[in-house]
Design a protein that fits this description.
Layout lengths: L4 E5 L23 E5 L1 H4 L4 H11 L37 E3 L1 H7 L3 E6 L9 H17 L6 E5 L3 H13 L3 E6 L5 H9 L3 E5 L3 H11 L5 E3 L6 H6 L1 H9 L7 E5 L4 H15 L8 E7 L4 H7 L26 H10 L3 E5 L1 H12 L7 H15 L8 E6 L7 H8 L21 H19 L1
Parallel strand pairs: 4-12, 5-6, 5-8, 6-7, 9-10, 9-12, 10-11
Antiparallel strand pairs: 1-2, 3-4
Helix pairs in contact: 4-5, 5-6, 9-10, 10-12, 13-14
């Protein structure tokens, strides 16, 4: 059976566009496009057969199907040639049972989807493998593309730099000056990208990248390009697969540009439509208080939406005041009976540190999601008996300087409730023994 997929307007305007066409917006209404699949063709294979196929490919070494994304190739870009796929075997990230932390929150069945355990350290790899692979297919077919470009707060640029380097395609990255961590800055530099550090914020970088990609020889890699969404939606499929094809009750997602909430929604909806699952989870979207336009809209039942000027936040990747995917995100939240919560800087910093004390090593964006989760549990929006999955979007090692500053008490405006400073001692065995004894006693008190 030949499967197919194409671009179509999110508002249902007439017209279908080839995924290999350089197009990002509907020519009729100017809104975003999304990828549609030939569902009737996909239904020719039973739900049980899809499950068997996906399970047979899971973590195998037959290229490219061991990838968490390309193991679901027929649901992503079914017609792409395998030799044009650029994969780092992204996805298949672990689903961490946060037992001890869950008990502290009074959530009996809490899991953290560690999307930061990926090639460049964030979930952005999942979408970038799809986008760069399609660009490679386009170029092989004679489409004249000189480079691929993105605006970024750090993680998108890292993924773009790595995948373009693997494909031998020039990449261009627009970053807001002094607003990304050193670890995030060095990744695209190391991979040979042209890194442009602009004196603006992410929204300013986004405006410029949209302008320069009007010339079709520079291909746009931000999430307004729905090829990215196709890769990211496999997180939803992967979570259900890791639960032996059972759907959790809640998914908690940190949100900035809001492509991820739509992406996961697409994954769950596709599984339901094709009969692999019989219910949808509820979705909680978490925003930083200093960049919270969707939270404000939710307070008014989404009757209106107003962009904001995002203020500096520790959660730099979601410091976005005018998200591109807002319309898609609102529709997803409405379909999934979703809620939106926010976290202050103090709350996100402390919650990340509190969870770290149970064995994690969280990025600040995951801290936003965990702080939002705590609030929702305290208000009994999320019940203690429900199965909850928090999407951890990036590896905490990208933010090691920020985490060190927290524990040294050097984060401006933050009183670190869970700080843990190094103890400086002379090289004296007795002094070391006494320090160990105090630590053991303190640990016992904390556990009790």
């Amino acid at each position: 059976m030949a499967y197919n997929a194409w671009f179509q307007c999110i508002n249902g305007c007439p017209g279908e566009f080839d995924l290999r066409e350089v197009i990002y917006r509907c020519p009729t209404c100017g809104d975003l496009l999304e990828v549609q699949h030939d569902v009737e063709a996909l239904k020719s294979r039973s739900a049980a057969a899809w499950i068997q196929l996906f399970d047979d490919r899971y973590r195998r070494n037959t290229y490219p199907y061991g990838s968490g994304v390309w193991g679901k190739k027929e649901w992503v870009v079914p017609f792409i040639d395998n030799e044009n796929i650029v994969s780092m075997y992204e996805g298949n990230s672990n689903l961490l049972w946060a037992d001890r932390y869950g008990k502290q929150l009074h959530v009996e069945d809490l899991w953290i989807k560690q999307c930061g355990n990926s090639h460049t350290g964030s979930f952005k790899d999942l979408g970038m493998t799809v986008l760069v692979s399609v660009v490679r297919q386009m170029m092989a077919g004679g489409v004249p593309i000189d480079a691929v470009a993105c605006a970024s707060t750090g993680d998108t640029s890292a993924a773009l730099g790595a995948y373009c380097a693997a494909a031998g395609i020039p990449s261009v990255v627009l970053l807001p000056k002094d607003k990304v961590s050193i670890a995030q800055l060095v990744q695209p530099l190391a991979n040979g990208a042209l890194v442009l550090s602009l004196d603006t914020d992410f929204d300013g970088c986004m405006a410029i990248v949209q302008e320069i990609t009007k010339e079709k020889r520079i291909y746009l890699a931000n999430s307004m390009n729905s090829l990215r969404i196709e890769g990211q939606k496999t997180v939803a499929i992967e979570i259900v697969q890791q639960f032996d094809w059972e759907v959790p009750d809640w998914i908690v997602i940190p949100g900035g540009n809001l492509g991820n909430v739509h992406a996961l929604g697409q994954g769950f909806a596709m599984m339901q439509e094709l009969g692999l699952v019989n219910k949808l989870p509820r979705i909680a979207l978490a925003q930083a208080e200093r960049a919270n336009p969707l939270y404000r809209s939710f307070q008014e039942d989404f009757k209106t939406f107003e962009p904001v000027t995002a203020q500096p936040t520790l959660a730099t990747a979601i410091q976005i005041g005018n998200p591109v995917s807002v319309k898609r995100a609102i529709r997803t939240l409405q379909r999934f009976n979703g809620v939106v919560e926010q976290a202050t800087e103090q709350e996100l910093a402390d919650e990340a540190a509190r969870a770290d004390r149970t064995g994690m090593f969280n990025c600040p964006h995951t801290g936003v999601a965990l702080a939002a989760l705590r609030k929702l549990v305290e208000r009994k929006v999320i019940r203690s008996s429900e199965r909850v999955v928090v999407i951890s979007t990036a590896n905490g090692l990208k933010f090691a300087d920020q985490k060190a500053a927290y524990h040294m008490g050097a984060l401006e405006g933050i009183k670190p409730s869970h700080r843990n400073k190094p103890v400086e001692l002379p090289a004296d065995p007795k002094r070391v023994a006494r320090a160990i004894a105090r630590h053991v006693e303190k640990s016992r008190l904390l556990v009790s």
